[in-house]
Amino acid sequence: METFVDNKFVLHRTKFFILISLQIPAIIISLLIFVFFINHRTTLNALQNQALLLLLIVGFVELTADLPMPIRYYYLGYVTPATPGYCNWWTFFEYSIHLISELLMATISIQRHALIFSANLFRSRLNLYVLYYAPLAICVTYPFIFYIFIILISPCDGTQWDYTSNLCGYANCYLLYNRFLGMYDWAANNGSPAI
């Protein structure tokens, strides 16, 4: 048992140092890209650059607000504060920000294809809003709304959380007690953007 604890400690410390060593340069590079966009505002006239800037902003939020939570877990070896409210918040934020990234990547890929092969499709203002800006807005708002309902407004009492595991053991109520929502989340939210 003691060897298992030592191995787990070494693994957590290794993950901690890897994440820290990659997070710091990623934040610096993100800031440099933002400075580039500030200094070269005309680059935002191109539609594809607007979508990429949105994806960079989401990635920056993930780097600065989401990644510190698992880094703290790997440093300490347990979740702190060890409360159901924190675990609900952590899983809500983690799932939302990852789904936003996935949906934006899929949507931007499709839009980029349309921009290359059917650029005249976006010439009308109505098409621009319906086919370009509305999908990007949906990519950002849908995950928050979906996970508010299935994670934050959940019937569980909070005893399902494992404070010795990363992300509180991934023990959301809908994953444990509602197979339909779990399958929907997996298929629609994680599978379809990849496809």
Automatic annotation (TrEMBL):
Domain of life: Eukaryota
Keyword Transmembrane helix (UniProt): yes
Keywords assigned: Membrane, Transmembrane, Transmembrane helix
Ranges annotated as spanning the membrane: 16-39, 51-69, 89-110, 130-153
Identification of the protein by name: G-protein coupled receptors family 1 profile domain-containing protein
Protein source organism: Rotaria socialis
